[in-house]
Design brief:
Layout lengths: L5 H11 L8 E3 L12 E6 L9 H9 L4 H5 L2 E4 L3 H13 L3 E5 L5 H9 L3 E4 L4 H15 L2 E2 L6 H17 L5 E5 L4 H13 L4 E7 L4 H8 L22 H10 L2 E5 L1 H15 L9 H7 L10 E6 L9
Parallel strand pairs: 2-10, 3-4, 3-6, 4-5, 7-8, 7-10, 8-9
Antiparallel strand pairs: 1-2
Helix pairs in contact: 1-7, 2-4, 2-7, 7-8, 8-10, 11-12
């Protein structure tokens, strides 16, 4: 099984430089209703990333490794929305055709946004795993270049570039809080953070209705959930992959669970306090602090990754 190293992350950072945004870090100060717990909290605003989420990093990292023939065949993937947008952006930037398969639980606005970037969009199945099987089947027939949303080393390395920026902009960070879907974001972020700062604590957050990696880490092997029960569809695959699980086992200190309502209230907090319009998944790290799923030690300097834009907190 291939893996990912800090050298891969640094190489990805060089490849995507100038092709994605270096997103800002916002100190969570001057709030009307501060969160309980950490005396210092920073927000890494990947919700301001091009295409609306961190996924542009991984997609562009992968695209910049492809040869001309692979690009000419066109790109194909399955997504809960954000990875598809990242691939659509990368394809648009390179003048490459893109086909995206979405599950039925994807918000229509994300499908519309994919079309705006020029992607061909198909709805298939109920959850990401269904759409992914179809995308793989179509790729096998057509020869299109498939890009996995979380279990590709180049994609993971691209997501890991976030840690390079976090530890450059807030070098005293000693706790990172990261949402988990399939595990691509936290796999890259955690491996890079631990390589740069071995004593840093990395906490993953999943929905109670989709505890895919929580259950897999507890079992010591990949677990496929029988069902999904969360509105945070970008955090809702039934199964991760061996590469992601191995990196998470090596580099993530703990995984905690939050409810959809807790994520919704956290998204409202981000909107009311900072004018940040985010989706449920992007509020998971805040929900963990706000409702006590994770209680940082006294004096901790926490950075929460606000991973994707949306309107869940503004309604």
């Amino acid at each position: 099984m291939s893996t990912v190293t800090i050298d891969d992350v640094r190489a990805a950072a060089q490849r995507i430089k100038g092709r994605v945004r270096r997103t800002p870090m916002l100190p969570a100060t001057l709030a009307h209703s501060p969160l309980p717990g950490p005396p210092t909290l920073n927000l890494k605003l990947e919700c301001l990333q091009v295409s609306g989420s961190f996924k542009a990093r991984g997609a562009m990292s992968k695209l910049t490794t492809l040869d001309a023939a692979a690009k000419a065949r066109g790109l194909i993937t399955a997504s809960g929305g954000n990875h598809g947008l990242g691939v659509a952006y990368a394809g648009h930037a390179a003048g490459v055709g893109v086909t995206i398969y979405l599950p039925g639980n994807t918000p229509p606005a994300k499908a519309d946004n994919l079309r705006r970037w020029g992607a061909e969009v198909h709805i298939y199945g109920d959850v990401w795993d269904d759409a992914n099987r179809e995308a793989l089947s179509v790729a096998a027939r057509t020869g299109q270049t498939y890009i996995h949303p979380f279990a590709d080393p180049d994609v993971i390395a691209g997501q890991g570039t976030i840690s390079l920026e976090v530890l450059a902009d807030a070098e005293d960070t000693n706790v990172l809080l990261v949402s988990i879907g399939g595990g691509g974001l936290i796999a890259g972020v955690a491996l890079a953070a631990k390589a740069l700062r071995p004593d840093i604590t990395v906490i993953g957050i999943e929905p109670m209705g989709a505890p895919t990696l929580y259950e897999s880490v507890a079992a010591g092997k990949l677990v496929e959930l029988a069902s999904i029960d969360t509105l945070a569809n970008t955090l809702a695959p039934r199964r991760s992959e061996h590469l992601n699980l191995a990196l998470i086992q090596q580099n993530v200190d703990d995984i905690v669970l939050v409810s959809d309502e807790q994520m919704r209230q956290a998204a409202r907090w981000l909107w009311q306090e900072f004018g940040l319009s985010v989706e449920l998944s992007a509020a998971a790290a805040i929900a963990a602090l706000q409702f006590g799923a994770y209680a940082p030690a006294e004096g901790a300097v926490c950075t929460a990754l606000i991973c994707g834009a949306g309107s869940d907190g503004a309604v």
